[in-house]
Structures are given as structure tokens and as C-alpha cells.
């Protein structure tokens, strides 16, 4: 057996780049991309990728060179997911909501060789490039800048001389890309959201990206001819790998610039969208849409949601609108989703609220993860499958990142004893499904008891007047820490702190009841819609513990 050797015929490095070449043959005349008045077939998309890749090589790009891009969900960003790795380079899609300072920090840290900028983002990019130049004191080689003009209505470039469509025109359609020697080579560089610490540069391998893509199209049961609406930014973990996944399935990418309720509803009804991904924050956008922005959902729209905990009550409201929701959990380091709440048909018989509670759990590992567990971080012992004992969620498998770029210390901290530590705290239920309870930095330790902020938020969100809620620790003279709830109301002034606390007393164990409810207009959020709890903790430190009327609520009882 051992004498049977690997050869070019039976051992080919795994890479999602192969999906586009196959799509150009198998789905050649099928629509690959729709963006306003522009549309392409898979044959055309492949040809454009070959041309762009050729032009990139002509710009003296080499293996492992980083190509950064600042663009919304437009065809160019989609094409770059193939063209950049075809040229042997590494794609770095930058979060478009970042300010110039953060964009400059990413360009500097990644040592980007080429920087593609969508026309709408020229102002931020110009400032970022100036900051990069000033900050580098002549030591940093400035990236070559390529502007992406409006493909539907070209206006001409203002940032430098190179333009995207010109690179496509100048390219060679016969060029099929550099040969990938090693599937461990880097394909993408994505920076974390920076919710809990400074953003880190996460590096994906071709192999990891391939396997994650396969897992997710399987886990979500995405068939061929899917019509995929780009409601999730492609810069977020490469669109949770669906940039590559839609090509694998020969689906149609519906690109939109802005994720407004109107744009989403319009695209769904115009193009008969079948699939879309989004963070739960988009649910509120869709649910709160004005009457003239809404359209009735007549097609079967499957939504994959994740990135933050979706409360059961929110899932129920979305399903009532006609969407079919699958819940996934993941992180940048895991190439997007790592767990999917795989639905079991026997659950269809259960009452609706119970179904939604099951769906709000984060689920089981995606197919190509080798293992997942919840462990006591000190002993690294697995927690019992009792749905109660909390521990750190740990993952192992080929879809986990290669590591953090230029950060050996953080990489070593993230990988311990053969596991990737997620920094999330969860439980395992008797049926093996994992439920996240908190980020470890957000757990509230009150009088020695661990309180899950996520659990309290889910209860608060069931209250009809509450639109959004975030619970963080506030200092407490007796208990060390206590929960403090920040609440956004649907209608300002529609309730009082006393009423909300009375509601909490009814539905929470006493020691969990917040010691303060603060009404706010908006919650501070990251660019990706995650609540910035570190900011709220600072505010909570300045607030006074609620102490009246004592007859209604005995908040000093911590048992
Ligand atoms: N379905 C989900 N339910 C609850 N939380 C989720 C879910 N999916 C993702 N998350 C949260 O999002 C985190 C991953 O987010 P991401 O990789 O975008 O960056 P970040 O962790 O917010 O940034 P940083 O690591 O810089 O603080 C997970 O660790 C988890 O806390």
C-alpha cells in the first residue's frame, strides 16, 4: 500500500479557485452575477478573473504578496476572490465601515502591494494613504493603487492612474493562473472585528478555505441554481466562504451596494432570492422596515444567520415574515461558521417557542471540523453534557486559520494543547448541541456565580417594548459585579426602570436580575454590528445601582 505514490493525477492541492474553472464549463451560460444593469455568465466571470489575474502578475505580484481591497459587495470584489489567488497572491478585503486610521493600520500591517479602491470610498482611502505615507517615514513601500469605477455608470478615476476595468481589458483571457504547489499557502487575510481586543490579521490557507466552503454548502444544503443575495459583506470572512461557495454551486450572485431594508426586499422579489446570510442585526432592519420599503416574501428565502446571538424571540418574528432561518456560530479564525444548528425533523412537532429556543442554540460542528468541545479552561477537562456547566468552546480542524499574521504570541495563545480556543463560553446539551452563553470577557461574576449576559438579553428581548438590549457587569460593593442592562425601547418613554426590573424579577433567578436598567437611544456597535460591551462597561461604572422602590423589588437579595 505504501508504495502507491501521490501523482499529479491523484493528488491535487485543495483550493476553492478550482470552483470557478469548473463553473465556467459546467454552468457556462448560467448567470453568475447580477448587479444593477450589469450581469455576467459563469463563462464571462471566469474569463474576467483570468484577465485580471494576468494583469496582476504584470504588476509584479509574487507569492504571498497581499492585495487589499476596499469595496462594497460589487462584482469586482467577487471576482477578486478568484483572480487574486490565481495570481498566487493573498486577498485582504477590508471592512468598508472602518475609518481612515484603521484602514491605514491594516495597509501598514499587511504590507499590501496593491490597493483596490471602489470609487465611493476614495475619500477614506486617500486619507488612509496619506496617513500611511506620513506614518511610514519613508520605510514603507506604498501600495500601487487601482480604482474601481462604477461599472453601471463609469465616471473616470480620480485616485491614481490605474482602473479596474482597464486591468481586465489589458489581461489575457487564456491565462489560467499560477500553479498552486502547496494547499497550505495563504489565500486570504482577514482582520478580526476588534470587539474585545485590537484587530488581528487572520490568515487562511487554500486548504482551509476549500474545506470550509464545502462544509457550508453542505451544512446549509445549498443546491445548484441558488440565487444568493449579498446581504452579508464579502469582507466578513470572505462572505462566510459563500464567495467561493456560489461558484461551486453555479448559483447566481445578486450584488447590492447597501444593505437597506428597501434594497433587500426589492432584490428578493425581483430576483427570486433563495439564499442570503446576515447577522441578527439585519433582522431588526427588516422587521422595522417602513410599509413602502417592504415586499411580501413569496419565494422560499433561506437565511443563514450568525456573528452574534440571535434571540429566540427575534428568530420567531423573522420566520413569521416567511423567512426560513438556519443559525450558525463562528469567528474569523474559523473561516466563518464552525457550528451549525442542524435542524431535526422531529422538532417540527414541538410548540413554536420551544422550536425557536432550540434554533437559538449554536449547534453542532460543520462537517470538515475534526472536533469541537467545551472545556474547563483551567483543567482542559470536557464539561458534562448537562446544558448547565459552562466552559470554553474549543475547535480543531482544517478550517481553522493558519495563525495571526506577524503575531506569534497571540497565535500561541490561541492554539493550546491541540485546540483552538475561541474565547467564547458555552454549554453542551445532552443531545450534543452547543449553546453559547457569553464571550469569556463578558461573563458577569456576581458573588462567585457566573451570569451569562446573553441569557439575560434573550429574556429582556421577549418584552414587547424592548427593541435591543445589552447586559454588562457593573461594580457592586457586595457582590463584586452585578448585571447592568442597557435597553433601547421601540418607543421612548413607553416604560420605566421599575417596570422592567419587575419583569426581570418574574422571569430571572433573583441573583441574575440587573441592578440597573439604563435606557439609551442606540447601543454602541462595531462595524460588524456587535455590541461594544467594553464601552458599556465603562458607562456602567459611572451609574448608580437602582435602589427604589424597595417594596416592589428587593434588588439587594443576591440569592
Ligand atoms: N451565532 C452566534 N451566537 C453568538 N455569538 C456569536 C455567534 N456567531 C459569532 N458570535 C460571536 O462573534 C465572535 C466572532 O466575531 P469576529 O470573528 O467577527 O470578531 P471578534 O471576535 O468580534 O473580534 P475580536 O476577536 O477582535 O474581539 C465569536 O467569538 C462569538 O463571540
Q: For the largest beta sheet, what order do the strands appear in spatially?
A: 2-1-11-10-12-13-14-15-16
Fold-level CATH name of one domain: Rossmann fold
Query: How many whole angstroms does the radius of gyration measure?
Result: 24 Å
> What is the makeup of the main sheet?
9 strands, mixed
CATH class of one domain: Alpha Beta
Arithmetic mean pLDDT:
92
**Number of extended strands:** 27
Strand content: 15-25%
From the coordinates shown, what is the CATH architecture of one domain? 3-Layer(aba) Sandwich
Q: Number of helical segments?
A: 17
In short:
With 559 residues, this protein is α/β, with parallel strands linked by helices.
What does this structure look like?
Belongs to the ATP-dependent AMP-binding enzyme family. It comes from Lactuca sativa. GO terms for molecular function: (E)-caffeate-CoA ligase activity. Among the domains are: 146 residues, 3-Layer(aba) Sandwich (Rossmann fold); 98 residues, ANL, C-terminal domain (GMP Synthetase, Chain A, domain 3, 2-Layer Sandwich), CATH 3.30.300. The protein is globular and about 75 Å long. It is of the alpha/beta class and 559 residues long. The chain is built from 17 helices and 27 strands. The strands form 6 sheets. It has a 9-stranded mixed sheet with strand order 2-1-11-10-12-13-14-15-16, sandwiched between helices. The structure holds adenosine-5'-triphosphate. Adenosine-5'-triphosphate (ATP) binds next to strand 14, strand 21 and strand 22.
